[in-house]
Amino acid sequence: MPKNTSIKDIAAKAGVSLTTVSIVLNGRSKEMKISEAMTEKVLKLADKMQYRPNQFAKGLRTGRTNTIGLIVDDISNYFFGCLAKIVEEEADKIGYTVMFCSSENNDGKSRQILNMLMDKHMDGYIIAPTKAMLPELEKLIRQEKPAVLIDRHYMELDSSYVTIDNIKGSLDAVNYLASKGNTRIALVTNETDQLQMQQRLEGYVLGLKKNHLPIVQSFIKKCAFGLSDVQLVKEIKQFMLSVEGKIDAVFFTSNNLGVAGLEALYSLGKKIPEDLSVICFDDNYLFRLGAPGITVVSQPIKSIAKKAVEILMSQINQKQFKKEHVVLRTNMIERGSVKEQV
Amino acid sequence: MPKNTSIKDIAAKAGVSLTTVSIVLNGRSKEMKISEAMTEKVLKLADKMQYRPNQFAKGLRTGRTNTIGLIVDDISNYFFGCLAKIVEEEADKIGYTVMFCSSENNDGKSRQILNMLMDKHMDGYIIAPTKAMLPELEKLIRQEKPAVLIDRHYMELDSSYVTIDNIKGSLDAVNYLASKGNTRIALVTNETDQLQMQQRLEGYVLGLKKNHLPIVQSFIKKCAFGLSDVQLVKEIKQFMLSVEGKIDAVFFTSNNLGVAGLEALYSLGKKIPEDLSVICFDDNYLFRLGAPGITVVSQPIKSIAKKAVEILMSQINQKQFKKEHVVLRTNMIERGSVKEQV
DNA sequence: TTGAAAGCGCTAACAA
DNA sequence: TTGTTAGCGCTTTCAA
């Protein structure tokens, strides 16, 4: 293994000291009044010798890694995949790389990944939090490490976050359904204490009230978290059978519930929107096309990611540690899955 | 900032030397014949003092990071998203984290990301390569760094890889279409020198020949790489218009071409499969459901990811450096997008 | 069975 | 304007 060239090698070759080389390589020549000639010489040598700084040594000294840690539920989910892509794009623009972990909404894993990332000294963290990681999260905040929560946050945790107005989003969905004459609206959501899901439920209830529609408990299905796709479809199918003929619309509160829900509905031979109006929180390929396209409450994924990186960077670069709370608005995209009831 | 506890702190507290602590913490007590009592004491102390090893220092000494670098085209793509998820799962099982970068099939970015990851001393690399990164890739291979290419590889590069039998996959698709009586089969692929795409084209041509069908150049559309979604749809739309009435089936060679293609077809008011049979290489949410579901040549994503990690680990752990070439088989999933022509 | 000390490559305080 | 040196936290050789 031919050892990489180090700052020392360059210094030797150039006949100057380590310091000089270090200064030049860090672009502080001007500041430190290193001569043009010297600077030039070192730079050229570094280039010729293919110098690449050793990030361990650098990190050991400076504590910085130029790396952002990203924790999401599941990188293969449409929402989080798109989010990760933008985060990576934005990070790349400013010379950062991204290390990602999926929490899988699994308590055990949640607990350890944040520690794992902290061990690796991320410069900042973008996290879709789970309850299980709260203790670690508190530690992070206490140490004033740059961190931004996304998708949801915890009231008891004084952190920066970028979320969306979930209540308004759900409300929009119900209002829309109601405006088309749908009066018996079912909800399919997750059994969870995550804020965004609770808020989506809340918006649904609020929407029903505002439109003077009855709130029927048996129209609300809360699926357990962490079910396999197959199980999820099965659960939703059962639910759909239990409310057959009693409802005229169903509202899914996330894209993966929507995908599973559609599978359930198709397998029951339901026609959308003839037999049932469908609306979904979150977008997905499947909803964009498909016949019919599914009307959705779409999240501004790009803005969420950009804002999160932006806040993170301001925390990383300024020593002053400002906590920011950003709540973005959702956007209804009308497609063909809602029937105009007569 | 309260400094983290170091090995030194523990040594001081325990009244022993650094060495002893290091040995114990690395689980080499037995081997080094450290007394039970000593071991116990150090371990307890480490736990109580919340010791977490400094990865920089460790890396600086050992050169290892317990991190895998993953380079894909686009993390938000269905195929790569799923792949990334499994890679992360597998890596997690063995105490590794994953750092990912999207090449975006962009030459400039391709060239730099591998260097970026190498700077960060990944223990191994899983890479969907692009032509632009060939020089870096060669360097990697020359240095015998653990690396596995996925999805495609380069003949001129003697590396480990995990791919699928693209020719056979395409052949299956064409055979299937032909068996249903489709005789005028168009192809929508990318303009690229990537092996997998060339092989899919090759399989298509082979399929036509085997079934004694004519090869019509104007039935083959090669879309430029890196088009935006909107542009892609537009291009495919134009193509579809140019072959309107002349074809009875179309074969898309990747999931994102398929998604764009469906959008194009829907916007032209085409009914699938009545107006046109459709088949696609690669799966996607959209194809699984949707009315009708799209018949696809599906890739064994899980196996690809698992195998890649497995090979990587064997390279990382054994000093002996074995290159492996794995070619997995695709799997036709019949859905409703192919018409039985009469 | 344990300890002392060197050194991984870099930065920064201090000296010249 | 440039050089010397300490030290970041860890592993490992060598010595005791």
Features:
alpha/beta; 16% strand; 12 strands; DNA-binding; Rossmann fold; 3 domains; homodimer; 14 helices; 46% helix; six-stranded parallel sheet; 434 Repressor (Amino-terminal Domain); 342 residues
Task: Summarize this entry quickly.
Chain A is of the alpha/beta class and 342 residues long. Chain A has helices spanning 7-14, 18-25, 29-32, 36-48, 55-62, 78-93, 107-119, 134-142, 166-179, 195-210, 229-242, 255-267, 285-288, 301-317, and strands at residues 67-72, 97-102, 124-127, 147-150, 160-164, 185-190, 220-223, 249-252, 277-281, 295-298, 325-328, 331-333. Chain A contains 14 helices and 12 strands.
Provide a descriptive summary of the structure in words.
With 342 residues, chain A is α/β, with parallel strands linked by helices. Chain A folds into 3 domains: 7-53, Orthogonal Bundle (434 Repressor (Amino-terminal Domain)), CATH 1.10.260.40; 66-164 and 302-329, Rossmann fold, CATH 3.40.50; 166-299, 3-Layer(aba) Sandwich (Rossmann fold), CATH 3.40.50. Chain A is built from 14 helices and 12 strands. In chain A, the strands form 2 sheets. The first copy, chain A, has a 6-stranded parallel sheet with strand order 2-1-3-4-5-11, sandwiched between helices. In chain A, helix 1 crosses helix 4. Chain A is elongated, with a radius of gyration of 26 Å. The model of chain A has no long low-confidence stretch (mean pLDDT 92). Chains A and B meet through helix 5, helix 6, strand 2, helix 7 and helix 12 of A and helix 5, helix 6, strand 2, helix 7 and helix 12 of B. Chain A binds a DNA duplex (16 and 16 nucleotides) through helix 2 and helix 5.
